[in-house]
């Protein structure tokens, strides 16, 4: 079942590692259980962000290629 | 991973400072401590009256490389000092000026951008570096 997105971070104008930094800031400001979508047009982020999510102990909900950008959805787990 | 990442920045060109800023931001994102030691031309680039001024690229960039870097900047890539500022917000990043380079270049602590946390000697840098890797850029 798809989680409800609490917040969307549009980082499509950012270069690597900007989208990850914007996501981390959003996660810090969120509550455990919140689900955050980050949009990135930078090719490195769809590789790096899932690895960071795993290492940081959060939950990757989905990674989807959209029209010209990627949407990565993560639930804050701790 | 308790040991910090340690970067010695020597070059003052925008491309090398940008690469160093990205390395720093990535480490900060992972919760690694980063110690940065500024020498010579990198230190000069952190003077508050020059930090926002473009300082050119490494010679190997050539005209074509310079055009690509300029296009990325125009497309909204953050300048290196902004990336470093964000990395400092995100994690534990300590930036120290090399005291010898300060003397050689006749730079006073007041001349430096607030991104710089202080001035230290090379021995203090090694002590803070502990057993962490040291990268020279």
Write the layout of secondary structure elements.
The complex is a heterodimer of chains A (78) and B (137).
Chain A: E1 7-10, H1 18-29, E2 35-40, H2 45-56, E3 59-65, E4 70-75
Parallel strand pairs in A: 1-2
Antiparallel strand pairs in A: 2-4, 3-4
Chain B: E1 5-9, H1 14-29, E2 34-38, H2 40-45, H3 62-74, H4 80-90, E3 93-98, H5 99-104, E4 118-120, H6 122-129, E5 134-136
Tell me what the structure shows:
The complex is a heterodimer of chains A (78) and B (137). By secondary structure, chain A is of the alpha+beta class. Chain A has one domain: 2-Layer Sandwich (Translation Initiation Factor IF3), CATH 3.30.110.40. In chain A, 31% of the residues lie in helices and 29% in strands. Chain A has helices at 18-29, 45-56; strands spanning 7-10, 35-40, 59-65, 70-75. Chain A has a four-stranded mixed sheet with strand order 1-2-4-3, covered by helices on one side. Chain A starts with 6 loop residues before the first strand and ends with a strand. The model of chain A has no long low-confidence stretch (mean pLDDT 93). By secondary structure, chain B is an alpha/beta fold. A five-stranded parallel sheet of chain B has the order 4-3-2-1-5. Chain B is globular and about 40 Å long. The two termini of chain B are 23 Å apart. The relative contact order of chain B is 0.26. The model of chain B has no long low-confidence stretch (mean pLDDT 95). The A-B interface holds A 13-18, 20-21, 24-25, 48, 52, 55 and B 22, 25-26, 29-30, 72, 75-78, 83, 86-87, 89-90.
């Amino acid at each position: 079942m798809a989680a409800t997105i609490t917040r969307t971070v549009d980082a499509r104008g950012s270069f690597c590692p900007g989208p990850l930094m914007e996501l981390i800031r959003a996660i810090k400001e969120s509550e455990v259980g919140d689900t955050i979508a980050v949009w990135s047009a930078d090719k490195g982020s769809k590789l790096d962000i899932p690895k960071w999510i795993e290492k940081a102990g959060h939950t990757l909900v989905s990674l989807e290629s959209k029209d010209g950008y990627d949407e990565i959805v993560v639930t804050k787990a701790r | 991973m308790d040991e910090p990442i340690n970067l010695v920045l020597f070059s003052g060109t925008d491309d090398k400072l940008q690469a160093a800023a990205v390395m720093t931001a990535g480490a900060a994102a992972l919760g690694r401590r980063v110690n940065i030691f500024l020498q010579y031309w990198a230190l000069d680039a952190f003077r508050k009256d020059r930090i926002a001024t473009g300082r050119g690229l490494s010679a190997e960039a050539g005209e074509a490389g310079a055009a690509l870097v300029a296009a990325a900047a125009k497309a909204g890539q953050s300048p290196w000092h902004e990336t470093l500022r964000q990395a400092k917000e995100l994690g534990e990043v300590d930036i120290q000026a090399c005291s010898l380079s300060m003397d050689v270049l006749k730079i006073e602590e007041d001349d430096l951008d607030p991104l710089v946390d202080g001035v230290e000697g090379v021995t203090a840098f090694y002590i803070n570096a502990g057993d962490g890797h040291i990268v020279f850029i």
